Fold each of these.
Amino acid sequence: MRDDIRLFGSLLREKRLAKGYSLRKFAELADVSPTYLSQVEQGKVERPPTAERLRKMAELLGENANQWIAMAGRLPDSVAAEIADRMKREPEAIPALLRATKGLTADELRRLTEQIEQDKQTGGNKP
Amino acid sequence: MRDDIRLFGSLLREKRLAKGYSLRKFAELADVSPTYLSQVEQGKVERPPTAERLRKMAELLGENANQWIAMAGRLPDSVAAEIADRMKREPEAIPALLRATKGLTADELRRLTEQIEQDKQTGGNKP
DNA sequence: TATGATGTTTACTGTTCATCGCACGCGCAC
DNA sequence: GTGCGCGTGCGATGAACAGTAAACATCATA
């Protein structure tokens, strides 16, 4: 039993209870069997539910879908596709960018992103 | 038959032949069956070989492993893991960063990456 | 004490993935 | 004309994936 899966499982249970759903009720809404939901919440599955089901859960729970999917240990398909696409053209660019932005706080990263957007407008990142 | 898979298939064949390997020989070195290799080269598979096998192929062909894997339509596990990890903490940061860097040329992106590395050293990206 | 809702366990299922074995046809060398 | 290496088509397979059904124990309520 993987650790991150267990963690996600208890988070799911917590959020579900916070919304006042019973296991069976939530399972029905999320379109899975109570059996399966129980297993997921206990971390008794080898791998997380599919991205699609996770998306549905996130919606029901009022969570950010992308984050919810990531918490469960999957990559949202749209993100994966975009990254793969770029790596075809420039294999090292993405890994390098990831390394470079590694230590940054969320705030620094946000500011940096804005900066880039601006530079694109005004032309060139080194005026 | 997906289009990118076909494209990758012919690229693989081209590179293999450039190295002077016969299909059987290369299959043996890459640790797959000739049958399967033939199918992959013809784009007659639904999905690309696993990342591990692709890595082995890249090595034999002298290609950049990450790019090779990306060309085949897969994400290198290490990259996927890193991205997923960050999205757990900050769900929107990565998508935003991808959007922001969308139009940049490889060169601009490289310069940007260097810039970030520098700013990290000197403290703060807005002096 | 019967009823009903709750969550859990065990065993099982259909599907997809990733790959292989075998038999085949082709061209060239001997 | 037979043997050899080449690539290919067809069918099959074992493992992994993503769940499900049915029966169960526990507790509250009527």
Amino acid sequence: MKKTNLLQGTLDLLILKALSMGPLHGLGVSLRIRQITNGAFEVGPGSLFPALHRMEEAGWLSSEWGESENNRRAKFYQLTKPGRRQLETEAKHWTLISLAIAGALKA
Amino acid sequence: MKKTNLLQGTLDLLILKALSMGPLHGLGVSLRIRQITNGAFEVGPGSLFPALHRMEEAGWLSSEWGESENNRRAKFYQLTKPGRRQLETEAKHWTLISLAIAGALKA
DNA sequence: GCCTCTCCTATCGCTTATCGATATGAGAGT
DNA sequence: ACTCTCATATCGATAAGCGATAGGAGAGGC
């Protein structure tokens, strides 16, 4: 049983949302996404880390090295102000698209 | 950083849905998608035709040449049986994902 | 007849996101 | 020592969508 693939474009949104609930290191983001989507989304490292780097590059996240709960070296990410704005923008965008498609399917 | 209009993966779903309401030629599909999404989605030819070809290749659509309402040569597409199954599958999949993300954003 | 507008299909090149596999390192447990 | 797990990272492949562009053919004005 393959886990459902992501819709492209939703990963950023989920990462932003996950981090809006507090700073996390990379794998923590992956876990929180699994939690808040009730296991519907499984994000592998090959998707996660490039996305985090891209988003930090875009100025939406900032990072610093620290220690995880298991005393492992880990990079902690948190939202910047532009990141919060981006979350709002993407959440709105998602809502619009989601309603449009739901409406189309109902018709 | 360009915003893509569509969420990747939703184009197939919209095309399948559009054709489930009756056969259409290419540009007709584009128009019907605009209608049923209340103008939320504009599908240009550079997205539309490759998608139609891909989906015909996949066996979801069949096509035949005919004449449009304006007496123009046009290729009419209709759903095959596998295409209808695919529509059901993708619609279900969309609903699941959509609910999962909506839930995640609410939290 | 001729010109232009619109309709209709088609393709090329480019960008970008995601995924599977793989690599590396270090603390934890035995 | 050895292995398991945590944690970050990167590479190559795949694929979708988009802008631009092209070309053919009927419609309608003149």
